[in-house]
Write a structure and sequence with these properties.
Blueprint: H1 3-22, E1 25-30, E2 34-35, E3 40-48, E4 55-57, H2 61-64, E5 68-77, E6 81-90, E7 97-98, E8 101-107, E9 110-116, E10 119-120, E11 122-123, H3 130-133, H4 145-172, H5 194-208, H6 216-234, H7 244-253, H8 258-276, H9 283-303, H10 305-325, E12 327-329, E13 337-339
Parallel strand pairs: 2-11
Antiparallel strand pairs: 1-3, 3-6, 4-8, 5-6, 7-10, 8-9, 12-13
Helix pairs in contact: 5-6, 5-9, 6-8, 8-9
Length: 343
């Protein structure tokens, strides 16, 4: 083949390529010519002479733009014309044109695009006639001056009647407070003797320190303190700071009965041995110490009864003396008595 023949064949092939593209025909149709916001309508794209291509790529929602939403689509193929019908809904506000759409024709790895012409329509707003929209409103009723004053009088009467009814109801439902009762004076606490405190402390020691006893030193510490505090309060001896030997001398001067002295000294001697000599008592020693302390309490109730009575009388006389000092006749308020608390 000569060079001239090769060029003729090449030119012939180049001439056939554009003829193939031009031979494609894409058209469109719009079923309505007037649209308003929210209307639904159909838009059809038709394609001719597509048999030589493997696939047809129809326009998607991106080509329609934001004013149109695709609700549904359906395709039709009758052998000669291939078409697709879109069901669209319009949400624009003034856009009056469905844009041009491109249809893709794919053959192998090559894709050719054919433009489908857009369609225009008339946008129909919510207000049909501007003159009707801005026409002045006609009053519903016409009131005369007499009717106005009549209504004012009725409203005033209702307001006064409502106020009087409210005041009457408030007076009827008013709760009259009852006079406050004077609180009853609190009973004076019963006098607690040193013997009562001793018995309460001995009961606590028996309940708290149960065998097997691990902290026996605490038991003898509390037992010694309870007995010595009773002696210092009732017999007025320095029992808290004295040893059992010194305490025996003080009690002999006070002529404490011998049968009360014996169990008392036994308990105090054992308490001093545990505290100062490191003596570890057995359970029998603990039981005997508690028994001796109970015997001291029983004998004290008999021997110290007179001392307890004198102590109670003395404390009551002191309370009456303090009460008399806090009351006086004030020179003001017409000589009425007044109570003040002395500082």
């Amino acid at each position: 083949m000569t060079r001239t023949g090769f060029l003729l064949i090449l030119l012939l092939l180049l001439a056939l390529l554009p003829l193939r593209v031009v031979s494609q025909d894409a058209s469109s149709s719009l079923e309505v010519d007037t649209l308003s916001v929210g209307d639904t309508f159909t838009f059809t794209v038709m394609l001719r002479d597509w048999e030589d291509y493997d696939e047809v790529i129809y326009p998607d929602s991106a080509q329609f733009g934001g004013d149109f939403e695709i609700l549904n689509r359906s395709e039709l193929d009758d052998g000669m014309i291939k078409s697709i019908t879109y069901e669209l809904q319009y949400f624009g506000a003034g856009n009056t044109y469905v844009p041009d759409l491109e249809v893709g024709l794919r053959s192998g790895q090559d894709t050719t695009y054919v433009s489908s012409p857009g369609r225009s329509f008339v946008f129909e707003g919510m207000v049909e006639d501007e003159s009707e929209a801005f026409r002045p409103l006609k009053p519903l009723f016409e009131f005369s001056a007499l009717a106005i004053w009549l209504w004012v009088g009725i409203l005033a009467f209702l307001a006064v009647a409502g106020t009087l009814a409210y005041l009457y109801w408030k007076e009827k439902t008013r709760v009259i407070p009852e006079p406050e009762e004077e609180p009853e004076p609190e009973p004076e606490p019963a006098w607690e003797s040193p013997l009562d405190r001793l018995n309460a402390e001995l009961w606590r020691i028996r309940e708290e320190y149960q065998p097997p006893l691990e902290y026996f030193d605490l038991l003898f510490r509390d037992l010694s303190y309870a007995l010595r505090k009773y002696l210092s309060e009732v017999h007025e001896v320095p029992a808290l700071e004295s040893t059992h030997t010194e305490l025996e001398e003080h009690l002999n001067r006070r002529m404490l009965p011998a049968d009360m002295m014996r169990p008392l000294l036994r308990v105090l001697k054992l308490c001093d041995r545990v505290k100062f000599a490191g003596f570890r008592p057995h359970q029998q020693d603990i039981d005997e110490a508690l028994r001796d302390a109970g015997e001291v309490s029983t004998l004290a109730a008999d021997y110290d009864r007179g001392l307890m009575h004198l102590m109670r009388l003395f404390e009551e006389e002191e309370e009456e003396a303090v009460s008399d000092e806090t009351e006086y006749i004030s020179p003001v308020n017409n000589g009425s008595p007044k109570k003040e608390v002395s500082v």
